[in-house]
Structure prediction request, 602 residues.
Amino acid sequence: MTARQSKMFIPAMLGLLFAVLMLSLAVGAEAIPPGRLLAAMVGHGSRIDSLILWQIRVPRAILGAAVGASLGLAGAALQGLMRNPLVEPGLVGVSGGASLGAVIAFYSGAVTSFPASVPLAGFAGALVVTAVLAGLAATGTRVAVLVLFGVALSSLTGGLTALALNLAPSPFAVMEIVFWLLGSLADRSMQHVVLALPAMAVGWAILLSAGRGLEALTLGEAAAQSLGIDMRRLTLTVILGTALAVGPAVAVTGTIGFVGLVVPHLIRPWVGSRPGSVLWGSALGGAALLTVADLLVRIAPTFVQLKVGVVTSLIGAPFFMLLLLRRQGRAE
Amino acid sequence: MWLSGQIAPSARANPKIASINLCSDQFALALAERGDILAVTQLAADPSRSAEAARAVGLPVTQGTAEEIAALKPDLVLADSFSDPNTVVLIRQFGIKVIILPSPTDFASIIATTRLAARAIGAVDRGESIVAEIEGNIAIAQDVNPNRPVVAALEPGGYTQGAGTLLDDAIARAGGLNLARRLALNGYRELPLEWLVAADIDLMIMPHDTGRTASLSLDALRHPAILERFAGTPVLALPANLTDCPAPASASLVPRIRRALGALSSTGRS
Prediction:
């Protein structure tokens, strides 16, 4: 990949993201013609058009892009830190840990007296799982074992989430497991944006700051240290950044799988494998991918609206299988 | 009065009955003598879920499993069409008669199910007096508002009850026009939030929310777009124990909705 192509990539991604975000604002259950939509955007729309745009579609678009960016960025950072192309927040239990934390805070009733307890608990859950995985990676655990351990953590947190929902006093809790395990952006509100976005943004900044360290790490740990990279510090940066980016995201949208796996792989052919550019590219790519997946959910003529995690799994799981088979082929 | 020996094998006494579903509990509790009820389910005595809770207090409860029922040796088991068919098969293998009450979708079928259960239990007279009470409640009012007020029936999780549901029947009998019906939504369906916000409605029906337990399903009804759009729209909170299980007590839905609609026209809303 030439440097010029790589330089053009970020503006091109920004353009694509802008386009799909506009599309996301234009598509919904209620058909609003473009003229009326534009009027609502500039504040001259009818009361109903403005309500639909600003209270329903805008928060959904913001959350889709922000959560997608979090998942893409965290996937790229985890893959860089563990030097393992198969890790991503959903697959290795980071999202599962976040979901477990959020579910406990939500259904215990903590949410009613202190709404921020849900993203905080999501952060805490993601932090624990990420730290366990990073600890294993630091002690030189084999790549395959690390991924399997993550898969086991994902099952464990999923099981505990189901248990917490079964014990919850609300008669609706058990049905709501679909939201927590598959994730959805439907009918979220500005309250959710306000609750999750600030922490997510801090997480992005922390993860993006790890670019240089992750770049040095591609040469191996010893080489990175000789370049003045403090491995402990780099590891802690990625753990904290991942937990801040993913935890609050999962707390307001449930666990949306595979975005963090697919996006860095799609980005690398365009920006090269230097983790610094992969981080930026994965943030933008994740935002665009999840926005598109959420558009598909709204356009799909299904009887009951699909959960967006279904779409990302349908894209992501075959992709994951392909990656595994390709690695297998290389190993032989 | 004993209808037939095939239903009540002893033919002298009423059958001893057990119910294995909250909805079949409602019919058992409304129709049977207390002494004839061997067991109901755990939720039957919870007034927020069960309209006949007062009658269920103190009765033995089960989780509705075949093992528990077999141990009770009832003459008759009442189940609901939503009961696990495997449980029903198992109970029948113990030689116990099981009647699966069809889950009613309107008031006519509540009356039919009431009569079916009454015959099986051997309480035909009691059944007929309950049917008369239901019919009194659901009679269509003569003085209906000619421009029928639009009623949106919001259910937890952003669902609504469209054509072919009990609440739709109740709204029609009370003189209202169900928004879901106007939007051509049949049965228990998702009501897209954008459609709701775009609609003009005169009355909103919501599940009664005690506010004690957090849930996404009830949060969906408090979306800021709904609160802002319908800030001035009257809300009728209906207890879940009348809507979740269509049963004789559900007949009081009609006068409740009719009163709420009457309050609209008296304040000149529609």
